[in-house]
Design brief:
The complex is a heterodimer of chains A (110) and B (875). Chain A has 110 residues and is mainly α. Chain A has one domain: Winged helix-like DNA-binding domain superfamily/Winged helix DNA-binding domain (Arc Repressor Mutant, subunit A, Orthogonal Bundle). Chain A contains 5 helices and 2 strands. Chain A has a two-stranded antiparallel sheet. Chain B is of the alpha+beta class. Chain B has a 6-stranded mixed barrel with strand order 3-4-9-6-8-7. In chain B, strands 14-15-20-17-19-18 form a 6-stranded mixed beta barrel. In chain B, β3 and β4 form a beta hairpin. Chain B is globular and about 100 Å long. At the A-B interface, α3 of A face α2 of B. Chain A: InterPro entries: Tscrpt_reg_PadR_N, WH-like_DNA-bd_sf, WH_DNA-bd_sf. Chain A: This is PadR family transcriptional regulator.
Chain lengths: 110, 875
């Protein structure tokens, strides 16, 4: 196992899944990341990351109901698992801790 | 909103192929969503392109299916186990295995023979370099509006025009057949045969020239190229190259090259080749006669061309057609159309007359292959049938295997392997049987002996093995499918109950098919036999007994007659052009009063003794009187009834003294002979005439009266040798020649009879297996019935009834179909044919029923006789 560390993009994807709540499936996740970060996101990359996250146990997935769109294929919806929440919280705590160490003025010069 | 356009199918398929099934649906959906989005934004074409790119992009380690390497590994490891269990099962069920192996071996040996035949047939003429570019120029000959006839030969004119005018040829050559001479060497004459060939002969064909210059050998007049065998025969141990041959007729030929004797796989062969310029010079000695080079003299010349690499045969054909049209304008009544025939096709076309060598005919190959398939199918049915019947016992084994973790694929492999092992064992046996069959087949017909060597080559052995594997897999598929489908729990729990046994109908159908084929074969063989006997015993309308036909072979007829007449056993001698009723014919144009109305008159030129010797019946007029005439003085003719009727000359007596025109000569009818069979008996009787010229005697008919045939033949041979010491005597009794002429039927009878025997044997073995099996499985039932008071007779009836029903169904199918095929398809074209009687039709049924009854009866009898107490106690 790679350990429980979250990569940068993994973190973004995981956050997006959390943000999208019950509507988190690959294409929607892609669009959302593209909208927020304004960078080009490739579906294949997101797909690979989702797969990896699922392997690490941070997300769970289930197939939705078939619809007319998508050529009749079902969507795979992702929800964040307990481990995923823990990992996200842990990352946030680490960041917060680091933020708290940064003196105020340093940032003002950026 | 445009919604047209779908993703490329093949990309979809590709995705389905590589993608793990649990990821597939979602991924397809995603790609589809993007695809639809792209259609709106960028158009259909870009969308499709993107889709394809995406499909390739997703080809990543995590999406790709796990390969079933592990599974394959198991199969491989288990192979030894399968092999072991298969061998054990084969050994344990000795009867079933023996039936399967023997049945397969017999039918496979026939298949091996046919494979050898087919592969040899297709190897013909392929030793020439660029054989696919070599073609023969063939001719379609049409007389007025008659049906056209195809000839393998063509006219010299057509050959010359092809060589000179057709573009795109790399090389071309022309052969003129039927050259024969006697060569004088050291005061002894040696006969030699050959063909005239133009100088580019070795450019077209790749015969191996051993000595001399191939490109110039056939240029000069009076040059001759001989084969190494001929060289050895004529000049044993000496160098023949550069020697001069002196012929009996006083010509000198210079040997310019020695060529290796044509290989067996060449459709034509030769002892020697003489330069075409020799032929031309000989013909030009008589400048008045131009027939040899005329457009209509298509009888003995063969033209071969080699196309350039980028020339299409169709282009050449178009050119040949235009040449033909041009030439046909000048000739009235006869039209000849020349076209190309590929070299490798020559051996396959038996419908061309005047072939200059061997011909096999694609029909022979098709018939042999078809009949063989039937036989092998029958043996395969046995395997399938018996395996399914036995599957009851094997189902437990399958159950255990499945419980331990075998998949359906594993079980399938196991049973296929078992079938393949059986077919491999059969292959070994059949290989020996093949060695027995080969000479039998080759001896069937002289043509076969000439065309086939049937050597066992390495490639052929590979074909054999491949064939055995295919047969094994095919025979094993059905049982393997059936057994591998079994559910583990059912197999273990229910073994012995009838539910596993739902394939009974398939088995019954297979038995019916087997016996239908067997009956059909027997019926066909007996019809063939009857037609053969009928043809031999047919009253031809003249006498053929005790008549020896001697080929004159170019000798002086008078000398021969003098020599033969000294033999006391030879009571009478006559002379003729041919031996009638054995298939060879001569014809001339025949006209009566109207010069425009002509027909073909078949004829036989005979002397005055022929008609009484053969006991032909002259119904009006007289026989020829006096000695036969020089062709220039020919003045009289004897016609048959059909010829008289053709031109409505009235009664035979009225037709006498009338004049007819034959080959442009005015001849007076002096007699009318009763119709007889000049051609073969399956052909109608055509207009025929006896002519009285002395330049066309090729046969001497000796009436023999002797008890000691061998001694007489020796005397005749001595007499022959005193006249001609070069050529051996070529003589045959008339009746033997007729037998030879109707060999078709005897072969039909022999081949089909043999196949009938084989198919009956196989079907009977299958039936035996099935009845053994039935008797075994129903032993308990039989015992109980017996205890309750059933008689042995009623038990046999009970067991045999279902099988006899199957035989009845088989008979009901086979008899009408065979009758129809022979009555309406095969015998329909024959002018004189047998009527298919009850005996022929039902002999097969009776034979099959007898065999079937004894097979089933013996087994059920055994079961019925057994002591019920014993059986019930042990169960």
């Amino acid at each position: 196992m790679k350990g429980t560390n979250l990569g940068e993009f993994e973190e973004v994807v995981l956050l997006t899944i959390a943000a999208l709540l019950n509507d988190a499936y690959s294409v929607a996740i892609c669009d959302e990341i593209a909208r927020v970060t304004e960078r080009k996101v490739k579906l294949s990359v997101v797909h690979a990351v989702l797969n990896r996250l699922e392997k690490k146990g941070y997300v769970k997935s289930h197939l939705g109901e078939p619809t007319k769109a998508r050529g009749g294929r079902r969507k795979r919806f992702f929800t964040i698992s307990h481990a995923g929440k823990v990992a996200l919280t842990k990352v946030k705590e680490q960041r917060d801790q680091l933020w708290s160490l940064v003196p105020d003025f340093n940032l003002k010069f950026i | 909103m445009k919604k047209q356009g779908t993703p490329p199918r093949w990309a979809l398929r590709l995705l389905e192929w590589y993608c793990r099934p649990d990821l597939l649906e979602d991924l397809q959906g995603d790609l589809h969503e993007y695809f639809e989005r792209n259609i709106e934004e960028k158009g259909v074409r870009r969308a499709r392109l993107n889709y394809i790119v995406d499909v390739f992009k997703f080809f990543k380690p995590y999406t790709v299916k796990k390969l079933d390497i592990l599974d394959q590994l198991t199969q491989f490891v288990m192979f030894k186990n399968y092999f072991k269990t298969s061998v054990r099962s084969i050994v344990r069920n000795k009867l079933f295995s023996a039936i399967n192996i023997v049945g397969l071996a017999i039918s496979m040996s026939i298949c091996l023979l046919v494979i050898s035949i087919v592969s040899e047939s297709f190897s013909y003429d392929k030793f020439h370099a660029d054989y696919d570019r070599i073609h023969r120029v063939i001719t379609q000959y049409q007389f007025l509006e008659d049906d056209p006839n195809d000839f393998a030969s063509t006219s010299i004119l057509a050959g010359q025009r092809t060589m000179e005018e057709v573009p795109g040829l790399e090389a071309s050559t022309m052969l003129v057949s039927n050259y024969s001479e006697d060569i004088l060497i050291n005061d002894k004459y040696y006969p030699i045969e050959g063909r005239f060939a133009t100088e580019d002969f070795f450019e077209v064909f790749s015969f191996n020239v051993l000595r001399g210059n191939a490109s110039t050998a056939l240029e000069e007049p009076n040059s001759i190229v001989i084969t190494d065998k001929t060289a050895e025969r004529l000049y044993a141990g000496k160098d023949a190259l550069g020697k001069t041959m002196v012929t009996k007729s006083g010509k000198n030929y210079l040997i310019t090259a020695i060529v290796e004797t044509p290989p067996h796989a060449s459709h034509f062969t030769f002892q020697s080749l003489i330069s075409y310029s020799t032929y031309k010079a000989e013909r030009n000695e008589n400048p008045d006669s131009k027939y040899w080079i005329s457009w209509n003299n298509i009888w003995s010349n063969h033209v071969y061309i080699k196309l350039l690499e980028n020339t299409k045969p169709a282009e050449v054909n178009a050119r040949l057609l235009s040449i033909s049209e041009e030439e046909n304008k000048a000739s009235d009544r006869i039209s000849n159309t020349v076209s190309l025939q590929p070299l490798t096709n020559i051996i396959m076309r038996s419908d061309l007359s005047n072939s200059n060598g061997k011909v096999i005919g694609i029909e022979v190959i098709w018939i042999l292959t078809g009949l063989t398939l039937v036989i092998i199918l029958s043996a395969g049915f046995n395997y399938t049938n018996l395996s399914i019947a036995r599957s009851l016992r094997r189902s437990k084994e399958v159950g255990v295997r499945k419980v331990i973790g075998a998949t359906r694929g594993h079980i399938f492999t196991q049973f296929i392997l078992e079938a393949t092992i059986i077919s491999m064992i059969s292959l070994c046996i059949s290989f020996f049987l093949l060695q027995v069959l080969k000479p039998q087949f080759v001896q069937l017909l002289p043509e076969f002996a000439e065309a086939y060597q049937l050597n066992t080559e390495v490639s052929l052995v590979l074909y054999f093995i491949l064939f055995a594997v295919i047969i094994g897999v095919m025979a094993g598929t059905f049982p393997a499918l059936f057994l591998s489908k079994l559910n583990a729990i059912n197999a273990l729990k229910n073994s012995g109950s009838g539910r596993l046994f739902s394939r009974v109908n398939v088995r019954k159908a297979l038995i019916v098919i087997q016996f239908t084929l067997s009956i059909a074969f027997i019926v066909a063989a007996s019809i063939g036999y009857k037609q053969y006997k009928y043809a031999l015993g047919f009253d031809l309308g003249f006498n053929t007994e005790n008549i020896l036909n001697v080929r004159v072979q170019g000798n002086d007829v008078g000398q021969l007659e003098a020599a033969f007449s000294k033999i006391p056993e030879v009571t009478d001698i006559s002379k003729s052009t041919l031996v009638a009723s054995t298939g060879s014919t001569y014809s001339a144009t025949f006209k009566f009063e109207d010069p425009m109305d002509s027909t073909s008159l078949f004829y036989n030129a005979v002397d005055e003794k022929y008609i009484p010797l053969m006991k032909h019946d002259i119904i009006a007029g007289t026989n020829f009187t006096g000695l036969s005439k020089d062709p220039k003085e020919e003045s009289v003719v004897i016609l048959n009834e059909t010829a008289i009727k053709h031109f409505n000359m009235g009664t035979p007596t009225e037709a006498l003294e009338k004049n007819v025109e034959i080959d442009g000569k005015k001849l007076k009818i002096i007699g009318v002979v009763r119709d007889f069979h000049y051609a073969k008996i399956q052909d109608d009787i055509e207009p025929f005439g006896f002519r009285n010229t002395n330049n066309q005697y090729y046969i001497m008919n000796l009436k023999i009266d002797t008890k000691d045939v061998l001694n007489t033949m020796q005397k005749i041979e001595q007499a022959w040798d005193s006249v001609d010491e070069v050529h051996p005597l070529n003589a045959q009794f008339y009746d033997e020649r007729i037998e030879r002429a109707y060999a078709d039927f005897s072969i039909l009878f022999k081949v089909v009879g043999f196949l009938a025997f084989v198919s009956i044997s196989i079907a009977t073995m299958g039936l035996l297996g099935m009845s053994v099996y039935t008797a075994e499985t129903r032993l308990k039932e039989i015992s109980i019935r017996k205890v309750l008071g059933a008689t042995e007779g009623s038990l046999i009836k009970l067991l045999a009834k279902s099988f006899m029903w199957l035989l009845c169904i088989a008979a009901l199918i086979a008899v009408p179909i065979t009758y129809f095929v022979f009555d309406s398809l095969i015998l329909i074209d024959m002018a004189n044919r047998i009527n298919i009687g009850v005996i022929e039709l039902f002999s097969g049924v009776v034979i099959i029923f007898t065999i079937g009854f004894f097979t089933i009866g013996s087994q059920t009898w055994k079961a019925a006789k057994s002591n019920p107490a014993q059986t019930l106690r042990s169960q």
